[in-house]
Amino acid sequence: MNAEIIAVGSELLTPTKVDTNSLWLTDQLNAAGIEVVQKAIAGDDRVRLAALIAGAVERSDLIILTGGLGPTEDDVTRDAVCQALGCEQHFHQFLCDAIAERFARMKRAMAENNKRQAFLIDGAEAIPNDRGTAPGQWIRLPSGKAIALLPGPPSELKGIWMAEIERRVRALAPPLAIATAHFRVAGMGESDLDQLIAPVYTPYTNPVTTILAAPGDVHIHLRARCPEAAEAQRLVDELGTKIRELLGDRIYSEDGADLETAVGRRLAALGATVSTAESMTGGLLGQRITSVPDSSTWFRGGLVTYTDEMKRTLLGIPADLLSRHSAVSQPVAIAMAQAARERTGATWALSITGYAGPSGDNVGLVFVGLAGPGFADARQLHLFGDRARIRNVAATLALDWLRKKLG
How is domain 177-253 classified at the CATH fold level? Predict the structure, then answer.
């Protein structure tokens, strides 16, 4: 069974408002064995929204609309559904009484325009909303398909879903189990990764494979749908094993955990600690490490030495080393990592020095240093992109080097 979600509201088309409802609903639908095949955001335009709804009804079994059920003229969801379905809506006194009662409990007078929320689409079932004034609506079409109209405020939407809509949705869906796997890979480009693993995943239509890329970090999602949970899990495990054999230790997480969490888990398991010395990244590496809960058990501290003077003063990097090789060099990166380890008493230390731009002939030249028991080395990297990307990828590759060194 497939579903579509349409989020309604012109504010969701601005750069300051994010549609989080569809993410939560997708999780709920997947748990019920329903695949979300399309999402859309529509502004407060009745004609455009009606066209979206009509198309969704043609394509999908379940359509969920969020928002646009308020009392103002720009709340057009009810009108658009009627236009799409070729039906009407009518005022119902029992809904108006329920809205008025809610206002009375809040010791407020109900505005006249709140009566718009008491209009029910013909053939729809009113869904009570105990957290707001806008009732939801549930429509079963003659084709067996269904449309749910849910309020936009997340607390109201979730309340209605859990109390009333979830059981209706599960009654619609045939018994279907979904099994998933989530691999994360660092230090490999999306195209290179896809070229490597495509021969093993393309023969499968179930599971479905999705590859998502971020700077220095690639996600591989597998999703299998079967009537039986055991069969879905078997298919995911089968394909997952093939992908694992190809990628080897490039995979740093199989449960969706980020790289800093994966590194922290390994350090904690070994009873080891790490510290940092950063120049170009200005504390970004330490920030990522300390974003992990309980990182204080394995992170000793970090030094941000952005200038040559700070490298000499805080890390004790010899002036002649800086003058001979420059601050952005392999010897200095090694010396920074060694000094951070000595000054903090950490088992391991990472360092980053480089040019992040945006101007200069050497933008993207980065050295990452790593020092540990009987080990000190630095790697030269040539990164591309804007300043933020270079800094983020440098931090990612530093963490991934440490992860692989820890074994």
Answer: Alpha-Beta Plaits (3.30.70)
What whole-number distance in Å separates Cα of residue 65 and Cα of residue 72? 17
Read off the amino acid at residue 169.
Answer: V
Q: What is the pLDDT of residue 174?
A: 78
pLDDT of the residue at 11? 95
> Using CA atoms, how far apart are residues 207 and 234, in angstroms rounded to an integer?
10
Q: Which fold has domain 2-172?
A: Molybdenum Cofactor Biosythetic Enzyme; Chain A (3.40.980)
Q: Which pTM was predicted?
A: 0.74
Low-confidence residues of the chain, pLDDT below 70? none
Query: SS3 for the chain, per residue?
Result: CEEEEEEECHHHHCCCCCCCHHHHHHHHHHHCCCEEEEEEEECCCHHHHHHHHHHHHHHCCEEEEECCCCCCCCCCHHHHHHHHHCCCEEECHHHHHHHHHHHHHCCCCCCHHHHHHHEEECCEEEECCCCCCCCEEEEECCCCCEEEEECCCHHHHHHHHHHHHHHHHHHHCCCCEEEEEEEEEECCCHHHHHHHHHHHHCCCCCCEEEEEEECCEEEEEEEEEECCHHHHHHHHHHHHHHHHHHHHHHEEECECCCHHHHHHHHHHHHCCCEEEEECCCCCHHHHHHHCCCCHHHCEEEEEECCCHHHHHHHHCCCHHHHHHHCCCCHHHHHHHHHHHHHHHCCCEEEEEEECCCCCCCCCCEEEEEEEECCEEEEEEEECCCCHHHHHHHHHHHHHHHHHHHHC
Domain extent listing, the chain: 2-172, 177-253, 259-406
Among 3.40.50.2020, 3.90.950.20, 2.170.150.40, 3.30.70.360, name the CATH number for the domain at 259-406.
3.90.950.20
pLDDT score of 381? 97
pLDDT given at position 9:
96
For residue 123, what pLDDT is reported?
Answer: 96
* Pair 141, 156: CB distance under 8 Å: no
pLDDT of residue 225: 87
Q: What is the pLDDT of residue 1?
A: 86
* pLDDT value of position 175: 75
* Dihedral sign, Cα of residue 247, residue 253, residue 255, residue 259: negative
**The pairing of beta strand 274-278 with beta strand 348-354:** parallel
Q: What is the pLDDT of residues 8-29, one digit of tens each?
A: 999 999 999 999 999 999 999 9
